[in-house]
Design brief:
The complex is a heterodimer of chains A (about 325) and B (about 325). Chain A is an all-alpha fold and about 325 residues long. Chain A has a single domain, classed as ABC transporter involved in vitamin B12 uptake, BtuC, CATH 1.10.3470. Chain A is built from 15 helices and four strands. Chain A has helices spanning about 5-10, 15-20, 25-40, 45-70, 80-90, 100-120, 125-145, 155-165, 170-190, 190-200, 205-210, 215-240, 250-260, 270-290, 295-315; strands spanning about 150, 165, 170, 240. In chain A, the strands form two sheets. A two-stranded antiparallel sheet of chain A has the order 1-4. Chain A has a two-stranded antiparallel sheet with strand order 2-3. In chain A, strand 2 and strand 3 (about 170) form a beta hairpin. The radius of gyration of chain A is 19 Å and the shape is globular. With about 325 residues, chain B is mostly helical. Chain B has helices at about 10-15, 20-25, 30-45, 50-75, 85-100, 105-130, 135-150, 170, 180-200, 200-210, 210-215, 220-250, 260-270, 280-300, 305-330, and strands at about 155-160, 175, 180, 250. In chain B, strands 1-4 form a two-stranded antiparallel sheet. Chain B has a two-stranded antiparallel ribbon with strand order 2-3. The two termini of chain B are about 40 Å apart. The relative contact order of chain B is 0.19. Classes of the chains: A mainly alpha (about 325), B mainly alpha (about 325).
Chain lengths: ~325, ~325
Amino acid sequence: MKSKTGIMKVKDNFDIWDFVQKNSIWLIFVICIVFFSIMTPNFLRVRNITNIFLQSSFIGIMSIGMTYLMIDGNFDLSMGSIMALSAVLVIGFMDYGIPVAVLLSLLAGSAIGALNGLFVTKAGINAFIVTLGSMLGVRGLVYIYTGERALVSSELAFSEISAASVGPIPLPVLIFLIMLILGELVLRYTSHGRGCYAIGGNYEAAVNAGIKVDKHIIINFILAGFTAALAGILMASRMNAATPTLGMEDHMIVITAVVLGGTKLDGGFGNLIRTLGGVLVIGMIRNGMNLLNVHSYVNMLIMGLILISVVYMDQKFDPLEE
Amino acid sequence: MGSSVKTESNLKDSSSKKINFAEIIKRHGILFVFLLMIIGISLRTDSFLTQNNMLLVLRQVSVKGIIACGMTYMLIGGEFDLSVGSLVSLTAVLVIDFHDILGPFAAIIIAILAGISVGAFNGFLVGFLKLNSLIVTFGMLFVIQALTLLYTGGQYVSVSNQGATWFSIIGRGFIFGIPIPVIIFGIILIIFGVVLSKTVYGRYLYSVGGNPIASKFSGIPKTYITFSTFIITGLTAAIGGIILGSRLMSAQNYLGQGYEFDIITAVVLGGTSLFGGSGSIPKTLIGVLILGFLSNGFIMMGFPYYVQWVVQWAILIGAVWMDVASKRGKILA
């Protein structure tokens, strides 16, 4: 019999080897830091560390939504496209004022997420097909809206959103960390969080236990759409422009980061703190490769190889097994 | 023993040969939508239903159609391959680049070997290591794309002296007025269709995808069947890449980008189930033709290419919804 949540298992009987296996992401984290600080002199400068956090925050915000989705056993390939949609919408509607534009693109992202969720739960279509469809369909909407051109905003106040910082912490990083902590609390201490683990751990049992499975899954798809939209807005603010090809590979990087953080592909196990580890490792690798002057093609190659090896580890290691 | 293994879907296929009109509408509703669409497009444009345009569409769909045959095997066996688009780019780049170095014949052999080896690697990961085919081939999509980029350095590659080689015949030639890519597509359709419906291998494939546990107890080597479907799909992607390369006499990194989406849509649209165990090559041909005519009609009506993505989204969801709804007997889950 599988235990319903991975978290409860740790509290039941503490096992040091089990603990190391579950937190192997932090081992990789340390190895990455050591490797890159030996290889490049500027890696451990405060400025570069801030930079890594800033670069990671966009992927990080999206990976919060993806972690929720993966814990309940689903996933979303359309996040990169939703990100592009919200970015072009926020720039396109800038004339109506920043709050309206931001609200509108958050709504649009959440609506696409809700649509994905409805197709998965109510129509009963495989999440892979649903989000593969919306990945291309939403990209088509983006192209139709922009007519293949990049949109540029003349509103300088908008670009200050992502340039602002609270103390030494840039605003996007602050938003990411606050959302991460809130998300982890919700995951641990609310019925929605427990519902997600239950659905991903054992779908049939969750249905039989009277958990409103569809509701939780739809909420998570909306959350994924929302976080993708938020990342898109921050990205647009950072460039003060939006291109229709934005985020073409981001869904892959997000999935890699989340699975690297130890969230099970089949669901039922994972948390946001380890996702943070995955996001930062990916951020360090991308940043370190840049400092090492490695070509961006190699970066893509490494991301693909990491994804494949992470799937291998995911398959070998089952934290829910007795 | 192999001949005694028959899956439910197999039986269903053979029983539906008796003509039952209500059953046909239920199972092939998408065909009627397709007919309505063709009528609609031909009313709006003059040149849609001409012989020239029909041949044009057939030539356009042949590359994706060839790969769709491999993908049909893949889906019947219950796995996915998302890396075919990247593989098309890689093999096209290889065949064009080696054409000037080693000559057309050797270049074709190299491209086919590359396709088979990438397929074998995917098949090793999924068949032998039992990894999730979706995520693994999704990762491979990026790995192969990066390798292609590294190989070309982001540059176009092209054949320098295009007049002096027979290589362009594969993509541009005609036999009795029929384009050669269409003839290759036809031959592959026949071979794949016959192997699937008449051989032990085909029956093994249906049972591995339809009921993995039963097929395991029947002693069917699932590992090798899965492995072989990846090699077959890799081979079809390489053939597609060679035809594309020959048609353009040049290649670039993003040539096959997004192919996997069109191909999976076409196969699923034809009625091959995503859950494995059912589907057929003629059905895939229908799916490929629907997508081909739709894309051609949209361009003829003057829509930009990306409008088709949105329509394809709706079609994909609609087709899969019909498939799952007819399986469970009601529209909503």
